[in-house]
Amino acid sequence: MVQIEQLVARTPAVSADEILKGFYPSPRFGEVSFKSYRPDPNQPSQAAAVKALEAFGATVGAGDGDGLFKRLFGKKVNSRAGIYLDGGFGVGKTHLLASLWHSTPGPKAFGTFVEYTNLVGALSFRKTVEALSSYKLVCIDEFELDDPGDTVLMSRLMRELSDAGVKLAATSNTLPGSLGDGRFAAVDFQREIQVLADQFDVVRIDGEDFRHRGLPAAPAPLKTEDLKRQMHAEFDGQTVAMDDFRGLIDHLAGVHPSRYRKLISGIDAVVWRNVETITEQAVALRFVVLADRLYDKDVPILASGVPFDKLFTEEMMTGGYMKKYFRAVSRLTALAREGQNHEPS
């Protein structure tokens, strides 16, 4: 028997302390390691990235307890406070970032870029700096600059954490110096972007999306009238959130993205009726955050309506946020495949 709930009936509240305590890898990456990463033999940059991160990890906490002589005259292992993994979606950047987190001493934090900006909103900038300055490592997944406010905020945050001796590690689809291109007048914020970029050594990871490497094409959407039958067949004994897609989209507008993790808490799978193409940028960006949280928690999807490669308009898929949308389509497709075919995403 399936226990059916609705996401539209949930209005989660999350305190600042709860947000801070949630800065650790999601269950999907809860036990990953450098050894469990499978580099593509045709992409030597992937194996090289593992070695670079292992070397960087050895510097985290390495200065703890050092004497004055060593601090003054010891060999400097790493010239910058941070390491930045640049590469396309699906090449395993998050896996590697989580592996770094698992392999290093604490206190430490792991979260997405959006979660850090949400933390600042909940705590204030100064309290966020105070909270994170005592950490040995801060990992930022999916680093991206969407607007001038984010640019100024993260430039200051990275600089102050670096000055406090915190090691930084980030992943992104965009080189640090090109962050913000096509999204806002980034040329007007080159000083802030350069300050941010100066905190990191860049490691490039090439390759194709592993989620679809050697796997069949994404399953076609189901018919709406078949959703319940398929749901009971696939998710017997589990808790499933079943919603009309349009109602879900409208509901997300009233739930801050910092609460999306709690929104899907306790949900084993989701079923969406009548998925339609999203035509508004703000709506699409909110939905990307939900897609990321579903993927983090490995929540399978059953859906009717348009296929996920039609979820965003052609203009969106070629615009300034295209990398975000491609990542979301990739992840949603993997979860849909898992929902229908029992294939791990």
UniProtKB/TrEMBL annotation:
BP GO terms, sorted: cell division
InterPro entries registered for this protein in UniProt: ATPase_AFG1-like, P-loop_NTPase
Keyword terms, alphabetized: ATP-binding, Cell cycle, Cell division, Nucleotide-binding
Pfam families referenced in this protein's UniProt entry, alphabetically: AFG1_ATPase
Xref: NCBIfam families: ZapE
UniProt name for this protein: Cell division protein ZapE
Organism: Arthrobacter ramosus
Gene that this sequence comes from: zapE
